[in-house]
Amino acid sequence: MNLVSDNIAPAHQAVLGALARANSGPARPYGHDEVNARVESMLSEVFEREVAAFLVTTGTAANALSLAQMTPPWGAVIGHEEAHVMHDECGAPEFFTNGAKVVGAPGLDGKLTPESLGSLLGRDFWTPPTHVAPKALTLSQATEAGTVYRAGEVAALAEIAREKGLRVHMDGARFANAVASSGRTPAELTWKAGVEALSFGFTKNGAMAAEAIVLFAPDLVENLAERRKRGGHTWSKGRFVAAQIEALLEGGLWLDLARRANASAAKLALGLEARGLKLAFPVEANEVFVWLPRPLHEALQAQGAAYYVWTSRSVAPARAGRDGETMARLIASFATEDREIDAFISAVGAAPGRTKKASRSPGTPLF
To answer: Which part of the chain is the Aromatic amino acid beta-eliminating lyase/threonine aldolase domain (predicted)?
Structure first.
């Protein structure tokens, strides 16, 4: 019953096979190999246009390098106040931008809204030269609340950013899960909606360590190779990073794995609601946030269930927990098995004082 994170999942067998094949002989170093070339071509097919791709091995590097291309040291990066880049990257965006500020805005269910973004950008403290100037907007897809921005929501936020002179970045650590649940194409969720750079995550979805900076704006390409090298994120044997991504893109495996993880999360959410528990956020990808009464939380921990205890200010009032309840974050991966979901749900049902209720759909329907 280990639902701590999708980071705990193993690398997919297709990835391991691709690494073995990449290891079969010599190749040009520093990303000038045939595998890297094929991956860039495959990414262009995925996004229905020519893109530039710079491969790295961590999402932190992908985010920080992308934002550094957009933001000078005297600038500001705007994002949701609970976004990963705000709290979970140890100041990497500030470091790689050489000191730009990262500023958060509120929003229910982990999402920025045109109102919250417009309100922040409309305030009177962005006056040069004594204050930083907003230069980039970053959107998490899926969000830290496990919700997914619709294409129209991305477009509305990007339009505000464009009017204010901000570049638009998307942190796609779980981009695959967002695409799988939305029913929209990768292009529709990114550049067609105004996104100029994407941190395309593969590590949480079957890779060993592989992420792609995908650039849709040609002017952002200049000197990114040098920035990546200077930051220590250029692999001399870059074919081993590219091979992982090639294996996941081949035949749409990346989407198959994301659908599998999303389905496990949906099954888990349905089972928890059927046992009378309240969800803190709609379940739209592979994350489930549920309120657990303290005795139930302690009983699950005693039985070996593993998950993170979570806090959030973006819970809608109608989904707020009660006194004595703990919010648990449960994440399913492509490797999560039905027996793990069944065991967790059974453990909830078997806890003292639990009663079953009629099943209903978890949160808002997928779209």
So the answer is: 2-292
For residue 199, being part of any structural domain is answered with: yes
Q: Which of 253, 273, 307 is the last residue of a domain?
A: 253
What is the three-state SS of 82-146? CCHHHHCCCCHHHHHCCCCEEEEECCHHHCCCHHHHHHHHCCCCCCCCCCCEEEEEEEECCCCCC
Give residue-wise pLDDT tens across range 266-285.
999 999 999 999 999 999 99
Determine contact, residues 316/108, Cβ cutoff 8 Å: yes
Report yes or no: 259 and 335 within 8 Å, Cβ to Cβ: no
Give the domain range for residue 280: 255-350
How big is the chain, counted in residues?
367
Separation CA 348–CA 307 (nearest Å) = 14
Return d(Cα 238, Cα 56) in angstroms, integer: 9
75 within 8 A of 213, measured Cβ to Cβ: no
- In angstroms, the CA 249 to CA 173 distance is 15
Answer whether 224's CB lies under 8 Å from 233's CB.
Answer: no
Cα distances (angstroms) measured from residue 236 to each of 55, 87, 189: 12, 30, 32
Percent of the chain exceeding pLDDT 90 equals: 90
Residue type, position 71, single letter:
T
Amino acid, res. 91:
G
Residues 217, 273 within the same domain: no
Among all chains, which residue has been given the structure tokens 């749409």? 252
Strand partners, 115: none
For residues 290 and 332, state if they share a domain. yes
CATH of the domain at 36: 3.40.640.10
